[in-house]
Amino acid sequence: MKKAKPRRQRAHPFAYEGLERVMHERARLGVLSSLLAHPKGLSFAAVKQLCGLTDGNLSRHLDVLESARLVEVTRETGGGRPQSLCRITAEGRRRFVGYLSVLERVLLDAQTPVRPASAPQTYATPR
Amino acid sequence: MKKAKPRRQRAHPFAYEGLERVMHERARLGVLSSLLAHPKGLSFAAVKQLCGLTDGNLSRHLDVLESARLVEVTRETGGGRPQSLCRITAEGRRRFVGYLSVLERVLLDAQTPVRPASAPQTYATPR
Hints:
Helices cover about 45% and strands about 10% of the residues of chain A. The first copy, chain A, is built from five helices and three strands; from the N terminus they run H-H-E-H-H-E-E-H. At the A-B interface, helix 2, helix 3 and helix 5 of A face helix 2, helix 3 and helix 5 of B.
């Protein structure tokens, strides 16, 4: 996972610019997380259940994620009734992992007390 | 830090209901993080700098955080020219720590491949 810069190296250490709105919105964060955990893809119904979303909500968020090229939705017709298959794209995986590295930084910052610039910066493992 | 439930114990494992909108908004997440790291409080100017916000933006977000009782802003007049001091409240600290535990869960989920229910759940330390 690509690392975000330590706090002391950032001009605005609490700006967290890497938290792109398209991924940071709570429902979309859940959708991307569910798809990252299922690299072969998930049906629309499965994402809906895993993320606790309504049909309309999930459709809307998938549209946003598709427009941003983070997710692709394909219509599968082989065998039974057709269903939509949702997958995270290669670009989606790359950008979401970058996003997650900023979230990790937020957690590290929360566990790193402010100290004089001369003191060593320690890495506090989240419990 | 209070722990969020492991993925398998959640009805909608990727819903992340604990990501309260009032704290999840990126600028407010930064403001709360900066104040958590400075328990004695920060001046308005310091928060503005640390979070890379404009006067207007910070004022607006502080209003939202004050209304939610997460932050308190007091006018300090002793000595030099008056300035606003921003502090995270006890309630703010408690709720923000709860919020952070959900963020931690997001990171753990991203590092935990989906596996059969019988397999052990391992704790993957974020790199």
